[in-house]
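Fold this sequence, please.
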Amino acid sequence: MESTVGQSCPICGLEDGLKMLAHTSEIPYFGEHTQITMSCHGCGWRVTDFIPAEGKKPGSWKLEVNSAGHVSARVVRSSSCTVRIVELGLEVTPGSSSTGYISNVEGVLDRFSNAIGTIKRQSEREGDDDTTIKCDELFSQIDLVKNGEMTVTLELLDPVGHSQILHEDAVSSEISEAEAKNLDPGPVYPVFDVSE
């Protein structure tokens, strides 16, 4: 269902430029979720998030990735989720344009690789050899993880509890309200009244 949101775009400020597309579907093993996509036809800004039908509490999911089989584990990341791989010193926190996605552990590793690639290209342009070497080391370590030759822990921290890892070895736990408040909540969507 697509509808116009009576709010201006948070990026370009276009009045009544936002459209919202909501689609509810059953995600295998995760249950019913609504995918919400907000977009601006003026500047092209777009954000997507996944919201489960059941109410959730702030939560954490962890998976010790120690085999090539773990790399195919399904991951649902909401726009409010912080993703960490402590052993590699990698962390992504949600920003104002953070989006949700459904992927697998390999896809999460690829997203980190893409970000590292951007940093490496910049360090090469600036002649920062130390950063370039560190990027190459991270690429090698990520390849080892993908091949099941290095063990790391993938951690999802979500203050609204919408993120999940689908694998029998994944462990979920609630996080305290205090811990949840210390996490970046991600993008703030315009508030609107659906009864109008």
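The two ends are 16 Å apart (CA to CA). Residues 8 and 15 are 4 Å apart (CA to CA).
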